[in-house]
Amino acid sequence: MKATLRLDKLLAHTGFGTRSEIKQLVKRGVVSVDGKTAKDSGMQVNPERHRITVDGELVVYREFVYLMLHKPQGVVSATEDNRDQTVLDLLDEQYSHFDVFPVGRLDKDTEGLLLLTNDGKLAHNLLSPRKHVPKMYYAEVSGAVNESDIEAFARGVTLDDGYVTMTAELNVLHCGRPEAGELSRVELTIHEGKFHQVKRMFQAVGKQVTYLKRLSMGPLKLDPALPLGQSRELTEEERQSMLAHGE
Ligand code: URA
């Protein structure tokens, strides 16, 4: 943890409003540090050593935040973009001071589970190619996905750049009949995260993904009650299981 930080940043992190709102609180004399009324919202404080109160209420500081986003299509998995809306634009204002970033990427047209955090160590561990964190997707695919695709994905398929994928588990929910205009519906679990991996794996077997949604990442499952475009903080149980998985 950083030893010191600005008082207004600390209060913004703990949900006391924007920097200008916090300035007003300080001006009103309701913020105190170790029992003394704070005079400057930019003063340096150490959340581990200083006792900070607002209107007498003790401020409990936390450094990290962990958010689950149900990413919609049309939004990019980046912290900034000149053209498109980013996943950060979908988050509640109260998280704007946490400097969160998406852990890995979903394509602009992919929906589903995206973890956002400012815990760089966890992100690094979850994304490490050595960890093989499983990621499960639901996909709709043009063409009849069949037993030979299940076997090919289990063996590993050769992508357009010559890379041979690790073993992946394909579960066919419905084998579509292309002659009837039907799509196949599948679940696929991969243990790595190459660029456009799911789409390119289907390309490798002559099929095209028309819809893609991530359902889980390691132990974290997309909350079925979380509406598209909405986010929520991980529960304590989810957070602990992710941290344990990322070790
Ligand atoms: N694979 C893809 O092709 N796209 C994604 O967004 C995620 C995995």
TrEMBL record:
GO terms for molecular function: RNA binding; rRNA pseudouridine synthase activity. Pfam families: PseudoU_synth_2, S4. Residues 228-247 are annotated as: Disordered. The keyword Isomerase applies. Keywords: Isomerase, RNA-binding. The keyword Nucleotide-binding does not apply. One of its GO terms (biological process) is enzyme-directed rRNA pseudouridine synthesis. Residues 5-63 form the RNA-binding S4 domain. Gene3D superfamilies: Alpha-L RNA-binding motif, Pseudouridine synthase I, catalytic domain, N-terminal subdomain, RNA-binding S4 domain. Its EC number is 5.4.99.-. InterPro entries: PsdUridine_s_RsuA/RluB/E/F_cat, PsdUridine_synth_cat_dom_sf, PsdUridine_synth_RsuA/RluA, PsdUridine_synth_RsuA/RluB/E/F, PsdUridine_synth_RsuA/RluB_CS, RsuA_PseudoU_synthase, S4_RNA-bd, S4_RNA-bd_sf. GO terms for cellular component: cytosol. Residues 233-247 have a biased composition (Basic and acidic residues). It is an enzyme of class 5 (isomerase). Belongs to the pseudouridine synthase RsuA family. NCBIfam families: pseudouridine synthase. This is Pseudouridine synthase.
